[in-house]
Amino acid sequence: MKLKQFQIFLFLIVMFMGAVLSFAFSISNPVLAAGVFFAGAAAIYLCKSRVKGVVEDERVHQVGQKASYVTLRIVTLGLAIGGAVLIATRDLYPGYTDLGFVMAYASCGVLVLYSLFYRHYNKEYGG
């Protein structure tokens, strides 16, 4: 299979998954939604394994790394600032205090997880 054919199949699979998932959510059927999700993921994996030629190269990985790093920084900073603001305004909006703590703990959890993975990959690749 060529890359162009894979992209067409990928588009069709995602469109079918979107239609069936929206139907499954509208009738409140989580089993159908989960089944369609896993079947679609398996179909995409099988199609991708049959692609001949270069699908990904070093440039794609480098762009993905940079994009994910910037996304991580923005999300962590947003959670930390949002949590701090909601905790600081607990006198005005007492109903949002718990959400503020959840956001603050989530940002701390993301930072701890990032540092653990950073340490692991730094050891693995000889840093």
Q: Note poorly predicted spans.
A: none
Which of globular, elongated, flat, extended, rod-shaped describes the shape?
flat
Q: What order do the SSEs take from the amino end to the carboxyl end, as H and E?
A: HHHH
Give the biggest beta sheet: none
| Gyration radius from CA atoms, angstroms | 21 Å
Helical stretch tally: 4
In percent, how helical is the residue content?
A: over 70%
Number of strand elements: 0
Describe this structure in words.
The chain has helices at residues 3-26, 30-49, 58-88, 97-124. The protein is built from 4 helices and no strands. It is an all-alpha fold and 127 residues long. Helix 1 (3-26) packs antiparallel against helix 2 and helix 3 (58-88) runs antiparallel to helix 4 (97-124). It starts with a helix and ends with a helix. The model has no long low-confidence stretch (mean pLDDT 91).
